[in-house]
């Protein structure tokens, strides 16, 4: 086999139609890491653990992967410098996109389908797609600019609430909670991810009941609160769920992308013309392993954006979940920084969101974000409407450069919220 069929330098491969995948792997120090990398790239493209007949040079040139780089961690160049029994590496491999075309399922099978023949426990820590691959993805239909036009809110962070309790109630009860919360001026109210399409609270009935509640609140306040309906379900039901909700009056929908699969979100985005909220529920199984899965910025940032989510719920380090600060920032960047032709998705920060933490999030991520406040709204001592007003008061203060403690002197709802939930420095 020619060396050029099996290996390539990074500079020579970047302009070609290859996906560059970088893996973290831990190996016993006596393991030949070059052989391991070669085994991975052959096993994930043309071959298996033993030579098989029928593989031609033309197949190798067009369809076999290539080893691009191997980096030692720490960067030891001498065998005498290795003082541990286990050595960590970053291995970068290139896979021709001709093998799987522009789709998630076969791409993921290729870059992370490690089976018994490949025998490598790895974590995908970085993946770089060529423009020829990404251009086939539609991405968000609305993006940040479209969401702002949709809501009529030009600059400030948006405010989202989710119905609490999470499940177990009828549409009429949910509509009452919706109305009381909408009076406080929230921009969106979504279903909790635990509420799908159960018999006791069907999606179509929820849409109709919540739309009436939204209209009633609008008549009283002049502010429109948009309901986001969770249509997560079996693959054969989801698009029908979405269309029935839209026919019933829904202006936006929500899907738990990790549970249904990124390709299902692609199909959904191509089938409807309303904003899609992508929820991270179930995504932990993708990135929480050290030697398995792929990194959070891809699992919860870039991939749902490529699939077509206009707004993406993300974890943060501030709500009790131990996400590293670096991963939180990188995830938001994968959603919103320029990336080929794709529109940016709007990050939704959730988990422990309350008025006292609004300034921290704006400093971290800027104002093109959505605050997902649940317990601090429904759990406000003065009621849900007051909880929503407290969040809006905090957002307005931050956007005006007014310290929250000073703003609280002018707004009772904010003062009570800060006393109840604290001030995050």
From TrEMBL:
Task: Quote the InterPro entries the UniProt record gives.
Answer: RuBisCO, RuBisCo_large_chain_AS, RuBisCO_lsu_C, RuBisCO_lsu_C_sf, RuBisCO_lsu_fd_N, RuBisCO_lsu_N_sf
Which stretches make up the Ribulose bisphosphate carboxylase large subunit C-terminal domain?
A: 143-421
A biological-process GO annotation? carbon fixation
Which cofactors?
A: Mg(2+)
Reported EC number(s) for this entry are 5.3.2.5
User: Would I find Isomerase among this entry's keywords?
Assistant: yes
Pfam families xref list: RuBisCO_large (PF00016), RuBisCO_large_N (PF02788)
Give a yes or no for keyword Isomerase in this entry.
Answer: yes
Q: What class of enzyme is it?
A: isomerase
GO molecular-function terms, A-Z: 2,3-diketo-5-methylthiopentyl-1-phosphate enolase activity; magnesium ion binding; ribulose-bisphosphate carboxylase activity
Domain called Ribulose bisphosphate carboxylase large subunit ferrodoxin-like N-terminal: residue spans: 18-133
Which keywords does this Swiss-Prot/TrEMBL entry list?
Answer: Isomerase, Magnesium, Metal-binding
* Origin: domain of life: Bacteria
Q: Which family does it belong to?
A: Belongs to the RuBisCO large chain family.
Q: What is this protein called?
A: 2,3-diketo-5-methylthiopentyl-1-phosphate enolase
**Source organism phylogeny:** Bacteria, Bacillati, Bacillota, Clostridia, Eubacteriales
